[in-house]
Amino acid sequence: MSEMLIPRQKRLDTLFYLMIAFALLGPTLGIPLTEGFNLTFFRIAYVLLAGGIILRLVTQKNLETSYMYPVRYYAAFFAFWFMYGLLSLSWVMSMGAALKYLFYMAFMLPLTLSFPFFLQSEEKLWKAKRVLFWVFAAIIFYAVFESITLIHLPPSAFFKTTSASVTSVFTNQNDLATCITLGLPFLATALFMLNLQKKHKWFIYITGVLTIYILIATGSRSNTAFALPLASLMLIIGLPFAVEREKLTKKNIAKAVAAIVAAVILANGLSAIFLSEEARNAAKNKLSSTLGFLQDIKNSAWHMEDGDTGIEKMQTGESAGVRKWLLINGFKFLQQSHYMGIGAGNVEPWMAKYGVKVNKVNLHNWWGEILVNFGVLIFVLYMWLYFWMLWRLWKLASRKHSPSLSPMLRWAAYSTMAALTGYFFGGMAPSSAIHFTPMWITYGLGLAVIALGEAKKAETKQSV
Fold it and tell me: Any stretches that span the bilayer, and where are they (predicted)?
């Protein structure tokens, strides 16, 4: 009887795939219980999955995790990071904001580690990739529908309005754009690195065209002008190392260039057809003002003058000045905390009380958020592990360093590395990334690929 109560691995795997699908969809699928709390399907699946794992651990007195050895330092850091957050409760200004932030961490950090925990084989990794692709495609297809009908989903900041803004399952355009720049490298590389049927390649290509169209519609400067080009640059640099030389013929390169040019032309054509004049002008003005945005940041003052605390008016509007002063205020708070951090989730209460020249309370910068909330120690460890992940993914993607890897694992390493590289700028778009599941999912995929890839390399060395 006791064995019948133990959740079977297949059921736990199914719950895992459901959980990551619901995680990407966010609060779109959920039950609002109070004004400030939404019981999402992701949280339900997460709790059921965690309960199943705990039950198995209690009944079997063992939980096999040896295959996660290559990513042990990430698990240790996540545990240390969370404990540091708990310790920071002793000095935070707002206990409520800190507990809310730690609540998010309690979901996101295990979500990330669940990828190397559950994806113990290439078959399971491939299944997870397919699940995430179909959810990503659904997000994009709804965004296309939204851009035409102006029907927004409940999580959108523009719900119950006829705003031309496109947000899909997210709250704002920047979140959607960041999800897009994390997902596009996987679509682009799948077309030439995976052995797919022609009909599947066409479907991925069409999805990619629509994705570019939606990215244009969001008007996100940081993602369109910086994150995507940086990810694309990484793909170009890594191409001769990750792809067989016999595939890099002039003919294939010409086809790839033609496909990219056609995708951009088609995406712009869709913008002209489907986007309203208001939406086109808004996106065009934001994207065309990128250089002016940077120039405003460069030319504006970086210190208080005559005690003026008002919002700076610049040529491209208030955004450049506000984002700059959010960081300046954040660095000031960090210094006042003796570089230990002001505590989990306390940027917003500090900014609301002490921030000057700003009309927002969140830093709108993931890297700054980690630094100011948790201090120099956590920030340095986080960044060191992040760069180390990119380096390990690069070695797995390289045919020279990892000749024994399968095409699927090499593709996963190559595309994840590019996506996380682009996120250096993409992380500066969302208001906060602590609950931004596309980032944590991509991070988790990176850990899963490292665990599988390095285990595969070790097996090959032993068999030689």
Answer: 40-59, 71-92, 98-119, 131-153, 173-195, 202-220, 226-244, 256-275, 370-391, 411-429, 435-453
* H or E stretch covering 39: strand 37-40
| Angle made by CA atoms 348, 38, 436, in degrees to the nearest 5 | 50
Burial 429-447 (b: 16+ CB within 10 A, else e): bbbbbbbbbbbbbbbbbbb
CA distances from 222 to 121, 289, 427 (A): 36, 12, 9
Q: What DSSP line would sit under 377-426, residue for residue?
A: HHHHHHHHHHHHHHHHHHHHH-TTT-TTS-HHHHHHHHHHHHHHHHHHHH
**Most confident of the following: 133-137, 220-224, 282-286, 426-430:** 133-137
Q: How many CB atoms lie within 10 A of CB 256?
A: 15
Q: List Cβ neighbours of 407 (8 Å cut-off, separation of 6 or more).
A: 193, 194, 195
Tokens of 315: 């040529």
* In the predicted structure, residue 372 carries a pLDDT above the cut 50: yes
**DSSP three-state, residue 289:** coil
Residue 274 to residues 135, 198, 396: CA-CA distances in angstroms?
23, 28, 41
C-beta of residue 85 within 8 angstroms of C-beta of residue 344: yes
* 2, pLDDT greater than 50: no
The predicted model gives 90-111 an average pLDDT of 95
The Cα 437–Cα 26 span in angstroms is 7
At residue 49 the predicted structure's pLDDT band, cuts being 50, 70 and 90, is very high
Residues pairing with 317 in the sheet: 314
- 289: CB partners within 8 A, 6+ apart: 221, 316
pLDDT of residue 419: 97
**Rounded to the nearest 10 degrees, how much is the dihedral formed by the CA atoms of 418, 424, 428, 434?**
80
CA 177 – CA 42 distance, rounded (Å)? 21
- Strand 30-34 with 37-40, pairing: antiparallel
Q: What are phi and psi of 34, to 5 degrees?
A: -135, 175
* Residue 49 in tokens: 């999955």
